[in-house]
Design goal:
Shape: globular
Distance between the termini: 31 Å
Number of domains: 2
Order of helices and strands: HHHEEHEHEHEHEHEHEHEH
Number of helices: 11
Structural class: alpha/beta
Largest sheet: 5 strands, mixed
Length: 371
């Protein structure tokens, strides 16, 4: 049996505490156009509930609260994001107000100095997820100056700029290793980060001010294609079934918004499924991209396909386990379980970042970028 859990390049005192992340959608909410509401205030309340330190948060951008968008910005969003094409201005702002806030923080001690620093990028989280994101990145902050800058950067990149400035100005960093902890190879969020770091000319969201830093920046790949993710999902599936030899494993990803992007997404999922087949005794491993942020009709079709896969397997007497391919446990996991109400299946209710192998992946990114 093959095993894809690699030995890390170097060993660290890595925290393996279990996490309970909650993740909002990796893009605009999949809901139908909502009536005008006071949802933007929910982002601030979520931060208060998490007990976050607001002193280092980018209040100018976080949660997109109270941000007055110009008519030109509204046009740009509608042109770039299909879901917003049918939204009113008020509905766009209400939807954006539901997104997790942009924020930043330096995790290393004030006296930590080093020429190489880590900048960890994430979607941004609620219900304690930001604290948990920090917890998972904190171990490496004892070896390198480290900052985190979660958030979609949809309307501003100031939180990323401030994190980079702190690393260079306060910690002597000359090379910033920017690690995108987004489970998607070319999602709109990943491309927005690429734009901010000068790796593409056009922003997939609003055009924002790119990063300006004297430091050399190394932007690493996302974890989406890494074999370690197959190891994690295989282990989660094994935990959730009683007899692997008769079990169907279904890997489900959040998925991108467009059909073109979904072709790449499915190829990534297929490769990871093959790794799981080769390193386990499961009866079969299938994949599906739910396209959580796509227009409702597309998402509904993918939901129906997923339900059909489960029903067909159960009709054959096979055990079924659904494994989300997502960084954290939270909103997506809850929506997926709601989609599957009434079906007989097992669910791997964990985020990839909870597995010890994800700590190995973080360490490898810095080592590979600077070694």
């Amino acid at each position: 049996m093959k095993n894809y859990l690699r030995i890390p390049f170097f060993t660290r005192g890595l925290s393996l505490a279990a996490l309970a992340f909650s993740l909002a959608a990796c893009g605009p909410s999949e809901q139908q156009p909502p009536a005008a509401a006071e949802a933007p205030a929910e982002s601030s309340k979520a931060m208060q509930d998490e007990g976050m330190d607001h002193s280092t948060m980018d209040h100018a951008a976080m949660g997109h609260e109270g941000h007055q968008m110009t008519p030109e910005q509204m046009v740009e969003l509608r042109e770039k994001i299909p879901l917003y094409a049918v939204y009113t201005d008020e509905q766009i702002m209400e939807n954006m107000g539901r997104m997790p806030p942009d924020w930043w923080e330096v995790l290393s001690a004030p006296d930590m100095q080093g020429k190489v620093g880590l900048l960890a990028l994430g979607h941004g989280y609620t219900m304690g997820g930001n604290e948990q994101f920090k917890e998972k990145v904190t171990p490496i902050s004892r070896d390198y100056p480290t900052a985190v800058a979660p958030g979609m950067a949809m309307m501003s990149a100031s939180h990323i700029q401030k994190a980079a400035d702190a690393l260079t100005n306060e910690h002597g960093v000359e090379t910033i290793v920017a690690v995108p902890m987004e489970i998607g190879e070319k999602t709109s969020l990943y491309r927005q980060w690429e734009y901010i770091f000068g790796l593409r000319e056009e922003a997939p969201y609003l055009t924002v001010t790119p990063l300006d830093t004297p430091a050399k920046v190394i932007f690493t790949k996302s974890p989406a294609t890494d074999p370690l993710m197959a190891t994690i999902m295989r282990d989660y599936a094994l935990e959730a079934v009683t007899n692997p030899a008769t079990a169907l494993v279904i890997i489900v990803s959040h998925g991108p918004e467009t059909a073109e992007e979904n072709v790449l997404e499915m190829s990534i999922l297929t490769a990871q499924a093959q790794r799981i087949r080769e390193s386990s005794d499961f009866d079969d491993v299938q994949v599906l991209s739910i396209q959580d942020d796509s227009v409702p009709g597309i998402r509904a079709a993918n939901k129906a396909q997923l339900r059909g896969m489960i029903e067909a397997a159960r009709a054959e007497g096979r055990e079924v386990v659904v494994v989300p391919m997502l960084l954290t446990k939270g909103g997506f996991h809850a929506r997926l379980q709601k989609d599957l109400d009434g079906l007989d299946y097992n669910f791997a209710n964990r985020g990839l970042i909870e597995h010890p192998a994800f700590q190995v992946w973080i360490s490898e990114q810095v080592e590979a970028a600077t070694g």
